[in-house]
Structure formats: structure tokens, C-alpha cells
Design goal:
- The protein has one domain: 434 Repressor (Amino-terminal Domain) (Orthogonal Bundle).
- The chain is 72% helix and 0% strand.
- The protein is built from 5 helices and no strands.
- It has helices at 5-19, 23-30, 34-41, 49-58, 63-77.
- α1 (5-19) crosses α5 and α2 crosses α3.
- The termini are close together.
């Protein structure tokens, strides 16, 4: 399985929209800049593990759950 920035972004955007929160809110909960989150969601920037950990916590999930959903997204579109 090959890493895919776009799959990471699609997964995070889908989860954020499912919770009905804006990029401003999620980035605030995660402690990252909104522009950084936007670039991640657009697939323009690769999130490091610490950032994924923060985003997962902000989405009230375990980092391993977020990674599993990203893997599923990659498999679905790969």
C-alpha cells in the first residue's frame, strides 16, 4: 500500500463534515493553523504523525482509528 496525501485529506474532511464542524473549529481543537489543515485536506501537505495524532484527538478518536480509516480510503481508491 502506497501513502496517499489525498486520501488523508479526504478522510479528515469527511470526518470533520460528519461531525458538522468547520476547519476553524477542528484546527483550534487540534492546535494547528487553519491554513495547515486546509493544505492537509486538499492533499497539498503531508501531515506528520504528531499532527495526525492531534487531529484524531480533536475528532474524539484514537490515532489508530484515523490511520485505519485512511488505509481504507487508500484501498478503496487504489
Amino acid at each position: 500500500m502506497q501513502f496517499d496525501n489525498s486520501a488523508v485529506g479526504r478522510t479528515i474532511r469527511r470526518l470533520r463534515n460528519k461531525k458538522g464542524i468547520s476547519q476553524d473549529v477542528l484546527s483550534g481543537f487540534a492546535g494547528i493553523a487553519r491554513t495547515h489543515l486546509t493544505m492537509i485536506e486538499n492533499g497539498d501537505k503531508q501531515a506528520n504523525f504528531e499532527t495526525l495524532w492531534k487531529i484524531a484527538n480533536a475528532l474524539d478518536m484514537r490515532p489508530s482509528e484515523l490511520v485505519a480509516l485512511i488505509e481504507a480510503e487508500i484501498e478503496k481508491n487504489g
